[in-house]
Amino acid sequence: MTRTYSDLVVLGTLGVVAIAAATIGFFLGSSPYPKERGEVTIVLQEAGQPCHALDPEQLRSQTKKSVKWHIKNTCTTAQWVRIDSFREKNFDGNGSEGPPEEILNPASLQKGPIPGGQTSVDNSYDVSATIKKEKDAHFDKALSYKYVISIGPNGTDWPTRLDPDIEIWP
């Protein structure tokens, strides 16, 4: 009987140690921020409508790092693309968007004309920027922003807009 009790104590102790080790490993190996995604593709298409952008995946990156948008124009005509107007999504804690901020360098990106009929991404039409927002009392955690992708035929008129998301952290 003493032998059985001793075996149970040893097994119980090993079980507790294994659970503690797994928990510590999980917390040491995990990040409080989402998985980084520093590049996304903006696809322009018509599909029975005027040329417009499909919603790209959400960009996610850390301040001081670069982000990149690949642009693929499957529309029949050449298009210009502008990316700007970054606004914090939950500025006041009640879900209201904040005022436009310059979180990137350069603050606004524009590319064009991007020829139509593309079947694959041509890297010569990529646009890149560096996240420049500095850590402060408000920016001490991940923040989500909306931004505007504008599409137009000439670089001055922007008839089509889309407002996807970007998440950044210090």
Produce the secondary structure layout.
Blueprint: H1 2-29, E1 39-45, E2 52-53, E3 59-62, E4 66-73, E5 79-88, E6 100-101, E7 104-105, E8 109-114, E9 127-131, E10 143-152, E11 160-162, E12 165-169
Parallel strand pairs: 1-4, 3-12
Antiparallel strand pairs: 1-2, 4-9, 5-6, 5-8, 5-10, 7-9, 10-11, 10-12
Quick take:
With 170 residues, the chain is an alpha+beta fold. The chain is built from one helix and twelve strands.
Helix content: 10-25%
**Helical segment count:** 1
- The CATH superfamily name of the largest domain is Immunoglobulins
Give the topology string: H per helix, E per strand: HEEEEEEEEEEEE
Radius of gyration: 24 Å
Low-confidence stretches: 20-29
CATH-defined fold name of the largest domain: Immunoglobulin-like
Major beta sheet summary? 7 strands, mixed
**Average pLDDT score:** 84
* Tally of distinct domains: 2
How far is the N terminus from the C terminus?
59 Å
CATH secondary-structure class of the largest domain: Mainly Beta
Shape: globular
- Our estimate of the beta-strand percent is 35-45%
Look at the helices and sheets and give the structural class.
alpha+beta
CATH architecture of the largest domain: Sandwich
Query: Strand tally, please?
Result: 12
Would you write up a description of this structure?
By secondary structure, this protein is an alpha+beta fold. The chain folds into two domains: 1-30; 39-169, Immunoglobulins (Immunoglobulin-like, Sandwich). Helix content is 16%, strand content 38%. It has one helix and twelve strands, in the order αββββββββββββ. Strands 3, 5, 6, 8, 10, 11 and 12 form a seven-stranded mixed β-sheet that branches. β10 (143-152) and β11 (160-162) form a beta hairpin. The chain starts with a helix and ends with a strand.
